Amino acid sequence: MSRRRILLSAVFLSYLLHGMAFVSVGGVEVVSENLDLTKTTTLSTSSHRKMLLLSPGKKAETRAEPDRIGEKCKRSDIVVNQAATEPMPNGIPGYTVEITNQCMSGCNISRIHVSCGWFSSAKLINPRVFKRIHYDDCLVNNGKPLPYGSTLSFHYANTFPYPLSVSFVTCSQGDVVIAGGAVKILLEMAEVVNASGKQLGSNNALNNARATLAAMLQMRQFCDVSLDRAIPMEGLWK
């Protein structure tokens, strides 16, 4: 790479990363399971009632758990339960689904894609909650993170329950100290959300670039910070 190109890259990076900032970042993982939705959309951080998992026909085959993203976050942290509920006035059976993030390390789960066949519902579902993008590919929560401890619940109506299973999820987690007044934009481009920054003021392009790279190498998980400080994870954001 030529000196001119390096200089241009540094200037562009410093423009995006103008100033110094401290950022706390929530986590993200990838998860999905059996699910269907329609009626009411609920997002809660309280514990939810357990529901019988609808299993049309044979029991689902046991799948090998995918590799964890880091040591503390895995796909099984997302729990999806589905159960029959009251039918519609015209007699079409109804079903309710609950999706819960039970990640114990405080990670957030995003970009949840579900294998859903030709999923459809006699009752309108908010597309921001659940929508079929293509055949056998449905998106949950519009791709946004499902925070740690939160539950999404949905209702849908169909003559039979759809078998749903996780096809793709994204997980990233931890606290991060990072430089750059525009770092939130960069993190969102990398699908890391819930970041906040405070500019301390530095007009040196190279300093901003170096500080940003150094800060990214210091990203840590909530659970690790909790152990170091000898306080519960909940105490980190109080």
UniProtKB/TrEMBL annotation:
Pfam entry (one): TPD1_C
Keywords from the named record: Signal
Molecular function terms from GO: structural constituent of ribosome
GO process terms (BP): cell fate determination; translation
GO CC terms of this entry: ribosome
Signal sequence bounds: 1-21
Name under which the protein is recorded: Uncharacterized protein
